[in-house]
Amino acid sequence: MTLVRGNLGGEFGALIATRMAQAAPAGVGAGVQQATRIATNPNTRSLFRNVNQRRFTFTFQMIPESREEAEQIEKIIAFFREELYPEEIGVGQLGLGYRFPNMMEINVTYSKEWQNIITKILPCYLNDVSVQYNTQGMSFHKDGKFTDVSMTLNFTEYRPMNKDDVKYEYEHWLKPTNINFTSDE
Fold first, then answer.
1. 88-118: per-residue pLDDT in tens?
2. pTM here?
3. Helix residue ranges per DSSP H, the chain
4. Which of 51, 47, 56, 57 lies closest to 166, judged by CA?
5. How far apart are the C-alpha atoms of 56 and 79, rounded to whole Å?
6. Which of 27, 109, 146, 180 has the greatest number of beta carbons closer than 10 A?
7. What is the DSSP-derived secondary structure letter of residue 116?
8. 38 near 49, Cβ under 8 Å?
9. Residue 129: phi, psi to the nearest 5?
């Protein structure tokens, strides 16, 4: 009975020498590989370990056309900055812990019928708020307000998704139409 099958031929000895040289001091293994022109197969495999939590980034470019719109943008920025941080629990100036910040529901829709256009996003924590003022240049309105602001919000879902979430999404959220997963062949 043959234990080794395939097209090894004379390369089997070179493969064994390469494998043995890997245990030798640094440089020896590489030298043997270079001389034999044979590399061992690391036989790598991918193992499932976990599901990562999804992250989402949204950037909004806001251009106020009046003082009132500029003030409204300032309120929007203040809202998200406040929601970013936890509430401190403590006595006087001694902080002992934090209350989690509020989770946020994110829905991306299209038109007045509220048609969902992307996959369902689980409730998220806001992780970062980045604001840039006057991205188009250093000019201001006559009242000293900025001419434009770019705000980027980074969110992370509170838990990883699973198959049941995806099934629910397609049964109740996106409600796909005209999709046929069967074959007529």
1. 999 888 989 999 999 999 988 777 666 676 7
2. 0.68
3. 11-21, 28-36, 67-84, 163-168
4. 51
5. 19
6. 146
7. E
8. no
9. -125, 120
Q: 10 Å Cβ neighbour count for 69?
A: 13
Write the pLDDT tens digit of every residue in 40-70: 778 888 888 899 999 999 999 999 988 889 9
Q: Are 160 and 53 in contact (CB under 8 A)?
A: yes
Q: Name the one residue in this structure whose structure tokens are 């064994």.
A: 16
Could you give the CA distance from residue 42 to residue 59 in angstroms, rounded to a whole number? 43
Which residues are CB-contacts of 125 (< 8 A; sequence separation ≥ 6)?
100, 101, 103, 104, 155, 156, 158
Bridge partners of 6, per DSSP, are none
Residue 153's Cβ-count burial label (10 Å; 0-12, 13-18, 19+) is buried
Query: Would you give the DSSP letter of residue 177?
Result: -
Read off the tokens for 100: 């989690």
